UniProtKB/TrEMBL annotation:
A Pfam match: Multi_Drug_Res
Protein name: Multidrug resistance protein, SMR family
Classification via Gene3D superfamilies: 1.10.3730.20
Lineage, top ranks: Bacteria, Bacillati, Bacillota, Bacilli, Lactobacillales
Membrane topology per record: Multi-pass membrane protein
Family: Belongs to the drug/metabolite transporter (DMT) superfamily. Small multidrug resistance (SMR) (TC 2.A.7.1) family.
Organism: Limosilactobacillus oris F0423
Keywords associated with the record: Cell membrane, Membrane, Transmembrane, Transmembrane helix, Transport
Amino acid sequence: MAWIYLLIAGIFEVVWATAMKLSNGFSNLPYAALTLVGMVISFAGLVMATKHLPLSLAYPIWTGIGAVGSIIVGVVLFHDQLPAITWVFVILLIVAIIGIKLTAGH
Protein backbone atom coordinates (compact mmCIF):
# COMPACT_ATOMS: atom_id res chain seq x y z
CA MET A 1 0.00 0.00 0.00
CA ALA A 2 2.94 2.34 0.68
CA TRP A 3 3.92 2.17 -3.00
CA ILE A 4 0.40 3.18 -4.03
CA TYR A 5 0.55 6.16 -1.68
CA LEU A 6 3.91 7.11 -3.15
CA LEU A 7 2.61 6.83 -6.73
CA ILE A 8 -0.42 8.98 -5.89
CA ALA A 9 1.83 11.49 -4.14
CA GLY A 10 4.07 11.68 -7.21
CA ILE A 11 1.12 12.16 -9.54
CA PHE A 12 -0.22 14.98 -7.38
CA GLU A 13 3.24 16.52 -7.42
CA VAL A 14 2.70 16.92 -11.17
CA VAL A 15 -0.88 18.12 -10.64
CA TRP A 16 0.08 20.93 -8.29
CA ALA A 17 3.04 22.03 -10.39
CA THR A 18 0.85 22.16 -13.50
CA ALA A 19 -1.95 23.98 -11.67
CA MET A 20 0.57 26.47 -10.30
CA LYS A 21 1.69 27.29 -13.85
CA LEU A 22 -1.94 27.61 -14.96
CA SER A 23 -2.79 29.82 -11.97
CA ASN A 24 -0.81 32.64 -13.59
CA GLY A 25 0.94 33.71 -10.42
CA PHE A 26 -2.04 32.66 -8.27
CA SER A 27 -4.25 35.21 -10.03
CA ASN A 28 -6.57 32.49 -11.39
CA LEU A 29 -8.35 31.30 -8.25
CA PRO A 30 -9.55 27.86 -9.39
CA TYR A 31 -6.03 26.86 -10.44
CA ALA A 32 -4.56 28.45 -7.32
CA ALA A 33 -6.95 26.34 -5.22
CA LEU A 34 -6.06 23.22 -7.22
CA THR A 35 -2.39 23.97 -6.57
CA LEU A 36 -2.98 23.99 -2.82
CA VAL A 37 -5.18 20.89 -2.87
CA GLY A 38 -2.61 19.08 -5.01
CA MET A 39 0.16 20.04 -2.58
CA VAL A 40 -1.79 18.73 0.40
CA ILE A 41 -2.58 15.42 -1.33
CA SER A 42 1.00 15.08 -2.56
CA PHE A 43 2.51 15.70 0.87
CA ALA A 44 -0.09 13.50 2.58
CA GLY A 45 0.76 10.66 0.21
CA LEU A 46 4.45 11.09 0.94
CA VAL A 47 3.75 11.08 4.68
CA MET A 48 1.73 7.89 4.37
CA ALA A 49 4.40 6.24 2.23
CA THR A 50 7.22 7.13 4.62
CA LYS A 51 5.39 5.37 7.45
CA HIS A 52 6.40 2.12 5.74
CA LEU A 53 9.23 3.05 3.38
CA PRO A 54 12.55 4.63 4.27
CA LEU A 55 12.87 8.32 3.43
CA SER A 56 16.02 7.55 1.43
CA LEU A 57 13.83 5.53 -0.92
CA ALA A 58 10.50 7.36 -0.89
CA TYR A 59 11.72 10.93 -1.33
CA PRO A 60 13.86 10.48 -4.45
CA ILE A 61 11.15 8.40 -6.11
CA TRP A 62 8.52 11.02 -5.21
CA THR A 63 10.60 13.86 -6.61
CA GLY A 64 11.55 11.78 -9.65
CA ILE A 65 7.92 11.08 -10.52
CA GLY A 66 7.22 14.79 -10.13
CA ALA A 67 10.20 15.79 -12.25
CA VAL A 68 9.57 13.39 -15.12
CA GLY A 69 5.83 14.04 -15.03
CA SER A 70 6.35 17.79 -15.07
CA ILE A 71 8.69 17.51 -18.04
CA ILE A 72 6.11 15.50 -19.96
CA VAL A 73 3.31 17.93 -19.06
CA GLY A 74 5.51 20.86 -20.04
CA VAL A 75 6.20 19.37 -23.46
CA VAL A 76 2.65 18.14 -24.14
CA LEU A 77 0.53 20.88 -22.56
CA PHE A 78 2.76 23.95 -22.72
CA HIS A 79 4.70 23.01 -25.87
CA ASP A 80 8.08 23.36 -24.14
CA GLN A 81 10.92 22.65 -26.55
CA LEU A 82 13.66 20.38 -25.22
CA PRO A 83 16.85 19.52 -27.05
CA ALA A 84 17.39 15.85 -27.89
CA ILE A 85 20.21 15.55 -25.35
CA THR A 86 17.79 16.58 -22.60
CA TRP A 87 15.66 13.54 -23.40
CA VAL A 88 18.71 11.35 -22.82
CA PHE A 89 18.90 12.73 -19.29
CA VAL A 90 15.14 12.32 -18.78
CA ILE A 91 15.54 8.67 -19.74
CA LEU A 92 18.48 8.37 -17.33
CA LEU A 93 16.28 9.86 -14.60
CA ILE A 94 13.59 7.26 -15.30
CA VAL A 95 16.20 4.50 -15.23
CA ALA A 96 17.53 5.86 -11.94
CA ILE A 97 14.07 5.93 -10.36
CA ILE A 98 13.41 2.35 -11.44
CA GLY A 99 16.88 1.33 -10.26
CA ILE A 100 16.33 2.84 -6.84
CA LYS A 101 13.05 0.96 -6.53
CA LEU A 102 14.45 -2.37 -7.71
CA THR A 103 17.61 -2.34 -5.62
CA ALA A 104 16.24 -0.97 -2.35
CA GLY A 105 14.75 -4.27 -1.24
CA HIS A 106 11.36 -2.87 -0.16
